[in-house]
Amino acid sequence: MEIKKTSLNKLHQSNNAKFVEFAGYEMPIQYSKGIIEEHKFTRSHSGIFDVSHMGQLFIYGDESLTKELEKIFPLDLKNLKQNCSKYSFLMNEDAGIYDDLIITKIEDGYLIILNAACKDKDFEILSNLLGSKFKMNLDNHRSLIAIQGPKSVEILNSIINGVDQLNFMTGSWFDSDNQKLFVTRSGYTGEDGFEISISNDKAEKFVENLIEKGAQLIGLGARDTLRLEAGLCLYGHELDINKTPVEANLRWAISKSRLSNGDFIGSKKIMNQMQDGASQIRVGIKPEGRLIAREKTKIFNDSDKQIGEITSGTFGPSVNGPIAMGYVDKEFSKVDTKILLEVRGKKHPANVCALPFYKKNYVKGVN
Amino acid sequence: MSEVKFSKEHEWITLEGDVATIGITKHATEMLGDIVFAELPEKGSNVEKDGTAGVVESTKAASDVYTPVSGEVVDTNQAIVDDPSKINEDPEGSAWFFKLKMKDQSEMDSLMNKEEYDKFAKESAS
Predict the structure, then answer these.
(1) A290·B37 Cβ contact <8 A
(2) For residue A221, which residues of chain B lie inside 8 Å, CB to CB?
(3) Quick check: A271 and A259 in contact, CB under 8 A?
(4) Which positions 200-259 of A are in contact with B (Cβ < 8 Å)?
(5) Nearest residue, CB atoms, A294 vs list B33, B62, B85
(6) Exposed, middle or buried by CB within 10 Å (0-12, 13-18, 19+), for A295?
(7) pLDDT tens across A75-133, in order?
(8) Which of A29, A30, A315 sits opposite B37 (nearest CB)?
(9) Global pTM?
(10) What pLDDT, in 10s, does the model give residues A51-76?
(11) Which CATH architecture has domain A279-353?
(12) Per CATH, which fold does B5-104+111-125 belong to?
């Protein structure tokens, strides 16, 4: 199968991107400055991320659509205000996660942002569940650009006036340069920022404009270190079809009002786990010293019993040390529990720690 | 000091008397990206030609460091363990990895000179 390219591919090339294949797309892993510089620039200034490989699924419908979607997602969608976003999951009957996603209520339906590697399957699953009653469009005519970091609001507002009035996890349509852009105040770096849905033919010029105003392109490498410092899950690592939201320590994302009736897919398993606890749970892990424990590193207790596995591990540039997330048996999930990580045949001490590793700077209330 | 020689695993080596100094090449650091962790062999241990003698990790992945010649480890560079970013800054100078007391100096003969290595690195990168 031919590798897919986003509408910013040429711009990545002219900015000396190193490319990798990710979910069938040729994507920039880093540019000439490297992951650490890009990471720090995002935390101190403003980084631009091409996330156009992600799925933008528009589903159109009225209250009957809301009712149907509540059978799928563990969210109180009836009381979700227009232009407000929620983090959620598409699950199977056993509460195994097909994908994690952001869903936003828009004027004539919902916009769901899906992971690149999962979007086609998600579309198929949702089409089967919803039938043909509602118009669905997995829109590949639109690019998705994220701009993240403390200077992002000023830079973006100088191009799209009014975005500074958005609260975190809300969005709206804006008119700019004779076109309609959907902008949400959101992101996946632990910083204040925005995601902009824009038609493919306008994306390159838009990003060039952001660069002129002082933002810089950032690759997937730094996106990974940023999200890990922020304690955020990455599908295929922390989350997969064998993990539930309770095991992933994401119960905050399940609306309380939906737990009394349990009428969504996977609700039985979730309600059981909420009551009895899950046998394994996702935690933050800090290796002692500088040792990096990568994905699949085995976790042991002090009597040599394996108690879990690392799902993501790297060096955190802002933390200035190694960081990881992984799953451990429930009894080892308390903060400050001493554990051992097996790296290159030797066991190294580490501690279970609170997430995030890096404190968030989200803007909670503008209005 | 001898001419600098290079291995196919992207290490450089110089010889002074019977003590060889070994590090990784600038080309290797450019391929690895930002180095954030280094592990070196133990002083007093013996390492064999083409065997592993350390590890470097970038933000992306871990890579073994090999030794291009055999010998006893007589010194290691603690400065790069304490601050691995030094390896990106000066890989072919102050950020050497370890020093070996060589057993058989003829092991140097099969290694590449600068010109040969530059050509090799260029070809292996493309």
Answers:
(1) yes
(2) 33, 59-60
(3) yes
(4) 221, 225
(5) B62
(6) middle
(7) 999 999 999 999 999 999 999 999 999 999 999 999 999 999 999 999 999 999 999 99
(8) A315
(9) 0.93
(10) 999 999 999 999 999 999 999 999 99
(11) Beta Barrel (2.40)
(12) OB fold (Dihydrolipoamide Acetyltransferase, E2P) (2.40.50)
